[in-house]
Every structure is written in C-alpha cells, then in structure tokens.
Amino acid sequence: MTNEELIVKLKAIVAPYIQDEAAFKTLNEDTDFVKDLKVNSANLVDIILDIEDEFDIRLENEDMEQMLDVKSAMAIVTSKLNA
Amino acid sequence: MGNTMKKRVVITGLGVVAPNGVGVVDFTKALKTGKSGIRFHQELKDLNFSCQIGGIPPVSEELKSKYFTDLQLRGFNSSGILYGCIAGIDAWKDAGFDMIPDSELDYNTGLIFGTGTSGVEKFREAIYKLDDNKVKRLGSTVVVQTMASGVSAYLGGMLGLGNQVTTNSSACTTGTEALLMGFDRIQAGKAKRMLIGSCSDHGPYLWGGFDAMRVMTYKHNDTPEDGSRPMSKTASGFVPGSGAGALILESLESAKERGATIYAEVLGGEINSGGQRQGGTLTAPNAEAVKRCIVKAIENSGMTPNDIDIINGHLTATSKDGLEIKNWSEALERRGGEFPYINSTKSMIGHCLAAAGAIECVASIIQLKDQFIAPNINCEDLNPEIEAMIASEKIPTKAIEKHFDNIAKASFGFGDVNACVIFKKYKD
C-alpha cells in the first residue's frame, strides 16, 4: 500500500471524530489528532479500534501511546502490515 | 432561615418521552384521549417472558439525530440516556433557552436527573466482549453510558450547566424525589434553576428481574392496550414501561425577571422512608410512613387535606392499589364522595419504573395547566375493595374538563421509600 493510499484510509477513519474541519481538509503526515483535528482524547481509543478493523491488525498499548499524529499512525500500521 | 426567606419555586419548562407520546404536545393529546402506549413485543416472547407487553416510546432515527451528533450516536446503546436527553433538552427549550455547543457556562442552573440503572444493553455488549477476552475492544463510551450519572453527564454538557449536576436513584420514587431535591436547592437560594427529571431504559434486560418476581401481568399478551389496569378488579400485575420526564424548576423571581411562561407552582412536599418496619419490606410499603409522607407534604405546602383537588397516584395495577387508596383516604381523612379525584397515568403508559415519577409529574402539570383530569383507562371494572372506600365517580374513566387549583403527586418505591409533592395553579 502506498503512503497516499494509506493516508486516504486513515482520513476516512478519523473523519467521524474530528472537530476541526479546516485542519481535516488539509490533513497530511504532520497532522496531530488532538492538537490539530481537536479529537476528544477519549476518542483516540475508538480510532485505534477502527484502524484495527480496517487493516485487520492488532495494536498494543505501546503502539497506541505513540499514535498521536498521522505520521506515527502510518508508521505503525505499515510495520504491522509488513510483520 | 424563616419561612419568609424561602424562595417560591415555579415550573417553567416541560419535556417528556412517554410510550404514548413523545413531546408535550403528543403526550397531552394522549392524556386527553386515553391513548395507550402499551404494545406486544416479540423479543419478550422469544425470551420466554411471562409478560410479553410493554411501553416503549416511539423515537425515530430522524428524531434522535435532532438531539445527538453523529459522533455521540457512534456505539450509543443506552435507551435511558436517549430518552433523558430528549426530555431534558425539550424542557430546557420549552423554558425559553437554547442548546448551543459553545454557550457560556451557566452557574445558576443545575441538574438532578435520576435513573435506576443506566445503559443495560451497552453493559451487556461490554460483558460479552470482556468475557471473550476483548476488554481492549470495548471502546471509549462504555463508562459514560453505563455509569448511573450518565444521563446527567450527557445533559450537563449539552446544555453547559454549572450548578450542581448529579443523579439520584430511589427506585420508582426517583423522579419525584429529583423534583423535590431540585425544589429544596432553589428554595434555599443555591440555584436559580434546576433541570430535574428521571429516565429508564427499556427492554428485557431491565424488565427480566420483575418478570421473575411475577409482579408483571401475563394475562394480556394478546390484548396489550388492556394490560395496564390500575384500580381495576381484574388488575393482575403491572406492565413495564420506559421513557423520561423533565421539568425546569425556577425561582419565581428568576422566572418573572425573564418573563417566562409559568405552568405551575411547586408548593412543597415530603420525602421519607418506611425503614422496612411496621409491615414495610424491601418491596412492600410501610403504610404508616406512606401516610406520614402525604400528611407532611400537605403540611409543608401550607395546605390542608381538603385543599387537594386531584391525586395523581402511584397505582401500578398490582394487589397493592387498594392499600394505596386506603393510605390516601386515611392520610387525607376523606372518604366516599369527599375523596378527591384520583388517576393513574400508568393505565396508559405502564409502569415506567425509575422514569415513572418524572413522567407522571409532567402529566400532573399538564392536567393542571390545561385544567382537565386524565382518564383511568381499563378501570371500568373498579376493584370493589376500592369502591368500598371512595366513590367510583372519583376515578374517572374518561377525561373530565375541570377547573381546579391543587394536585398531589406521589411515588413509592422498592426499598420502602416515598415521595409526595403538591403542585398549585400559579397565581401572583
């Protein structure tokens, strides 16, 4: 999966949880889920579950702690898919 | 603090989600026409319930989306919170306020919204996942949907309330108790407004325990609308219901300042417990405590027993209805034709459990503001035990238009707990 394809999938996953439309429209690798998209921190766990479902992977607590922005999410998903 | 210092408390907003009507307009129409909200539910039959009928408010997906965001509805599975939020928001708007996500925090308004248990279906979902070793897969909303104060947490945030925000729980007394707790807080000058109410989930996982106790009727599975029969000779147990009621209580001065519509005045009331003594048990009332509750409520309201025009009773359609009438009659020292009119909203909506008190307080205020007595449906065959105590015309089976001033509402609950409140038509 290319980075572009991955980012499109992640964008669809986070869409229901974002509270900043402008930041969402320009979502890129540097976008932070909480700081930029204003996702309620409680919803980060829901995003993790949705990522697990979409990519059929399992994420551990350590993975989740690192997944604070699009870049780290992409890195972790890619590493799981390649594992 | 002397009596003169106490604030007068009025009602300036109403909201209701009942099995026979969602919203004050539909619910009022249902009360006037004696419309039943009791239906047969295949799910109950499939689960081998003895009682396969119940009251579930008709809430469409479209209506839900008017009160909740898509994000709030993701993984949402708590019917009590759903009903509570709709009723609470409706009451808030009815009182002349808006629901604005970024509104200024309102430290003058608090919230006491009761329930018996919250989100039983969500809890069931969570238990299945958990037992399947998937605790990490529960998602973020199990806690807020299943904590008892879930409904208050949702509502408090939707409306931006900054005074006390809490949940009370006292079985079937819950809603009436919430009202009196809110009343106390305003009367003491601690809040200008209190949104009070109560809600209850629907469905087998809440109702099952009552079915197991054999306190729900199993005789009307083919005739659901005839099933809830308070005070009838053929009453054979209650019919479970669900929903929510909500009221805005406000100090008279605040209501006048805002030019708010005033529906009624809360004169006072009483909350007590029979302590499971003198015949009271976990599930049966101590009659002495019930009578004391009624007498004190009237006393605290500065009234006399003869001032009570109408009673909205607890009256669930179990064998205890006769005892309740006896308690009222003895507490008021009024019998036969001297007894006030009495009705049971449960004949139309069933027993909405933790929501009953609030829905029935709303029903009482609607009758007071529109000056009518709602009918007791399914009571054409009055229980002779009751007829021996009070005149049958005091238990109307059709709605009656009537000018009246004072209505008493009482609720009694498991744990031997009681609450009684007196509402008066508002006069300057």
TrEMBL record, chain A:
It comes from the Bacteria. Residues 1-81 form the Carrier domain. It holds the Pfam family PP-binding. InterPro entries: ACP-like_sf, PP-bd_ACP. This is Acyl carrier protein. It comes from Winogradskyella immobilis. The lineage of its organism: Bacteria, Pseudomonadati, Bacteroidota, Flavobacteriia, Flavobacteriales.
